[in-house]
Amino acid sequence: MLTLAFSLGGTAGCVLANRLSANPNVRVLLIERGHINNSRIASSVLLSFPHVGIVPSKGIKTVPQRNLNNREDLLYESLSLGGKTRINAALYLPGCPAEYDSWGEGWQWKDVGPVFSRSEGCLDNNPEQCSAGERGEWKTRTVKAEFESSRQCVADFIHG
Q1: In which band, very low, low, confident or very high, does the pLDDT at 95 lie, cut at 50, 70 and 90?
Q2: Which of 136, 152, 155 is nearest to 18 (CA)?
Q3: CA dihedral sign of residues 45, 51, 52, 57
Q4: CA 78 vs CA 17, 43, 48, 85, 107: distances in Å
Q5: Cα–Cα distance, 14 to 2 (Å, whole number)
Q6: Of 89, 79, 106, 104, residue with least CA distance to 141
Q7: Burial code of 26-46, b = ≥16 C-beta within 10 A, e = fewer?
Q8: I need a labelling partner for 86 at 20 to 30 A (CA). Which of 34, 57, 74, 144 fits?
C-alpha cells in the first residue's frame, strides 16, 4: 500500500486527495494550515473579501504589471481553512480555451479541458446549461453577469 502525505489544502488539495484516495491501494493524509472560521459572518460573500478583514488573510505584492499601466497590486492568501476559496467568494473560473492553447504542448485545452470536465459537477437546473459532467467534486453553476456596471468596473481597474 502506498501512503501519501501532503500539505496542500483548500479546494484543489481536497479534490486531489479525494482523487488519490479513490484507489484502494493508496492512503492519503491531507494537512492544511489555518484557522477554522465557519461563522455566518465569515461565510458571507461580501464580508469574506480580504479588504473587510473578517477572514484572516495576507496580501502579497506583485511586481509592476505591464498591462495594468505598470501598477503593482496585492494578491491575497487566506489564513483560514479552505484556502483562497474562503476569500474569493468561492468563484471558480477555469479560463477560456484560447488561454490554455497558448501555453504549449501538454497544457493546451485539448489536454486540460477533459480534466476540468471530469472534475466539475453541474448544479444548474437546466441541463442544457451544463457543459460539464454531473459527478465531479467541484460543484459549479453558470452565472452570467453582463451588466454595464461590471464592464465599467473592469475597465476602471485596468486603466487605473
Answers
A1: confident
A2: 136
A3: positive
A4: 20, 13, 10, 8, 27
A5: 18
A6: 89
A7: eebebebebeebeeeebeeee
A8: 144
Sequence-ordered list of residues with C-beta below 8 angstroms from that of 74, at least 6 positions apart, any chain: 59, 60, 61, 62
**Predicted pLDDT at 64:** 92
Cell of 159: 486603466
Task: Assign 3-class secondary structure to the chain.
Answer: CEEEEECCCHHHHHHHHHHHHCCCCEEEEECCCCECCCCCCCCCCCCCCCCCCCCCEEEEECCCEHHHCCECCEEEEECECCHHHHCCCCCCCCCCHHHHHCCCCCCCHHHHHHHHHHHEEECCCCHHHCCCCCCCCEEECCCCCCCHHHHHHHHHHHHC
Going by pLDDT thresholds of 50, 70 and 90, the confidence category of residue 146 is low
Give residue 125's identity as a one-letter amino acid code: N
Report phi then psi at 18, rounded to 5: -65, -45
Residue whose cell numbers read 473578517: 54
Q: Closest by alpha carbon to 49, among 74, 70, 31, 12? A: 74
